[in-house]
Structure formats: C-alpha cells, structure tokens
Amino acid sequence: MLPLNGLYAVLATFLPERVATWISIASPVVVFLLWLWAVVTREEEGDHVPVSLPESQLLSVSPFFRSRFDFLRRGFELTGQSVYKFKLLRNTVIVLSGESARREFFQAAGLDLTAGFKVLSGAIPMMPGVTSDITARRVSTIHKRLSTAQSSEALAKLLPRILEDSRKAMEQWGKSGVLDPFEQVSQLIFQTTVRCLATEDLADNEADVVRLRELYDRLDVDTTPASVLFPWFPSPSAVRRLLTTKEIFDIISVVVDARISSGIVRDDTIQMLVECGDDRMVVIGFILGLLVAGARSTGTTATWLITFLGGHPHWKARAAAEAAELLHSYSTYPTEHLPSSAAAAAQPSTLSFLSHRLACVPLEAWESETPVMDALLRETLRLAQPHAAMRMNTGPEIQLGGKRIPTGSFVMYPFSDVHLSPELYPDPWRFDPDRPQSKMPFSYVGWGAGKSVCLGQRLARLELKLMMALFVLGFDCAVVDAKGRPLNALPRPNWNDSLTCKPPKGSCYLRYERTGL
Fold it and tell me: N or C terminus: fewer CB in 10 A for the chain?
C-alpha cells in the first residue's frame, strides 16, 4: 500500500485512484531524468569557455538558416563578447570575431572544412561515394585534377572558348533592352563554368546546361533546416533534394559514360580525367561538385560586378579603357574582318569581332596587366560574398580568440567581421575599388585565406575578367528599377541570402545598348 504523500493526496482528489498512484510514482522519475539531463548537458563555464547565447536553442534553428547574417551579428550584440557559442540541436557552434581570432582560425590545423559545411550548410548536393563519404585519397585526386585544369596551358586553350560562350549569351540579349543581371549574367557564367570544368559535349547542349542550372537552383530552394539537420529523415524537402541530385547525376553520368565508351578524344577537362585513369565516380563527382561554384559563388560575383559597373559609370569607363589598352598592345586580329561601315569607329561594331580580338590577348596579360579589373573583383567580392567560414574541430582541443574549442565542436567565422568592418573599410557598404589595402594580416579573405583558399580562383578570375571586358567594350548600360526608371542608388547586397546575396526581387535591372551599331 503506497503511502498517501502530499502529491498523491492532491491527485486523488481529482483523479481515479489508479491514475493518481501511477502519476505519483512516475513524477519523481521524470524529475530525476530532467535533473540528470540538465547535469549532463550543463555548459561548462569559465574564463576560457565561450559564453552561451542567452536564449533557447530551439529559437536559433530557423534564424541560423533563414537570416544567418542578422543572427550571427545579433549574437555578438546579445553576449557582448567577441566569441560566443550556441546549440544547433546536438551540435555546439562557436562563432568568432576579431583580428586575433581570425588569424588563429585561418591558420589552425585540425579544422575540417568539408565536415563543417556538410553539417552546417547543406549547400553541396550529397550523393554517397560521389560528393559525400568519399575517401581522403579521392578528395586529393580531385584537388590535383582541378589544379591541372587551371594550368597555364589549359587556361590558354579555354580563353577563346570562354569568350565565345560569353559572346553567344550576350548576342541573345539583342541590341538593346532591359535584363535581370541576377538571371542572365548568372546563366552566362554557369555556361562558361560547364565549358571549363565539364565536357565540350555538355557545354554545347544548351538545353542540358539550362536544365542543370535550374536543378542547382532547386537544390538551394530545398535546402531547409530539416533537410540539413535531419538528412536521414524523409521530409518533403529532403526527398526533393534527393530526386534533384539524382537528376543532376543522371545528366552528367550520361555524357561521362558516352565519352568513356566512345573512345572519342576531345580537348576538354573530362578528357584529362579519363586519360589520368580516374574511375567513373571520380569523374562524375568532380563535375557534379565543382559546378556548384559556377552556380553560386562565381555567378554571384559576376552578377554584382555587372550591377556595380552599371551603377558606377566611372568604373565602367576605367575597365573599358584597360581592356582597350590590352587590345592595342596585343590584338593582331586582321582588320578586314571589321565591317566597312564601322571601320572608322572607335570601338569594334560586333561582339564577334570584339571577342576574337580579346582572344588574341595572352593569358599572362589577363593575369598580370589588369590592375583595374583586379580592384573591381576585389571590391565586389568584399561587398557581395556573404560567406561564413564553417569548420569542424576534428581534434585535438585548441584555443581560438582565447577560448577553448573542444574536439567535435563546430567553428564559424563570418566574413562580414572583416569585410564590413568600419575600422578596416571606412563606410564599408560603399563601393570603392580605390580603397587602400590594409597591411593587417587576413584583412581580406575574398578568396579564402591561410590553410583554406579557393582552389578554383585562377579559373574564376579569368572567367570574370573575360566576361567583364567583353561587356564593358560591347555595351553601354545603366541600372534601372522595374519600370525602367534610373536608380538613384544601388540596392545593398543581401547578406542574409547566404548563397547568392540577391537584393529584393524586382529592385534592380540593367538597361543596356550595344555600342558601335
């Protein structure tokens, strides 16, 4: 016979005896389990431990994925610290800021980029054995092949092909009109990236290229908190991501299998992979994974670069003058190809003629004699790449910013901490490629820094410069609103859009007209 304790007496007043007895027994057990959970999950405190974000961990999930820039910035404001942590369900995430933490972060060993992005981002299409769960040896092989694809010899061959793809895309715009740079320019760069990192067969198939970009965009839409945090759970978004990834895989595998089985030799990247003896899954994984850069980072840079040029005619004129100087110094394309009606014009009359002349400029000149274009790319990357570096500490325990980083925890460094810093970049939202470069270590991380730099940056720089040169020499342009009226000011890049940085839809367009017509 159970003793009639106070809890049982109260419950028996309102409930049947059996129910009151069961609850009176279960309640102490529940209280004990809650106490035990609190003890086990209690955050360690001390001077060397990052302070915790002072709000429920459940309130962190949606803002972290939906408005990451605001969420991370608010964390610094709430804690008043330069290093803080929060829980993303079971995962401890530590966020860093400040010069010393930045320097230590980019130089630290044991911080795994792949594991960090896999758990915290979900932006990479995951297919076991192709883009995920691949061995370190395969990852090393892919990195070596990417380096080979960016050799001087390879890039020199790609140079006229990038220009030709750019020319075809711009010809489709017509002689004049209004375009959405976040659509048309992004598609152009995706096309040139397919040309450079995949196969000639695929790049020549316009329908497949357009479809691939649509599929990569769909992956972005279906990257939700549920699909990232519970990848094993068949949520609607996870199922859609799986089906989309499978369709991307099918498109790429068809062209890879056709090349391998046909024995046809083409001078493209896939041929290099095949001749190196790489197995089928490495070849497919190389293309499937690296095209993400064309769909996102390089495309984002290109769209904002053209937008900034449209909103800053002075800088467009300087870029055009630099490109024209390259033509004057290096182009030997025969003038008889120029239509007689435009023979006396200051600029070539057709994009075709212009692209052929630009193709005569050697790779070395594009890489070392374009300080204006380099400054434009640098400032565009500073203002319109809303990245947060994500790493997992695979061990041992380290210290960053004077705080302990346990093994198994995740670490984030938001690029906004340096690129939007008023101390390093006065009036940081102002587009100013003439800014003096700070001598402080890691004061600019647009292409990565330290142990983690963009492995494809040489190719990306070339793509962006060639597209820029063809555009500034071939078009006059101005930024306008949805009704075609000139904009008084450009929209600010949206850092909460952590993949593409797009401004509000319909807020900015580009009115253009071909020159020399």
Answer: N
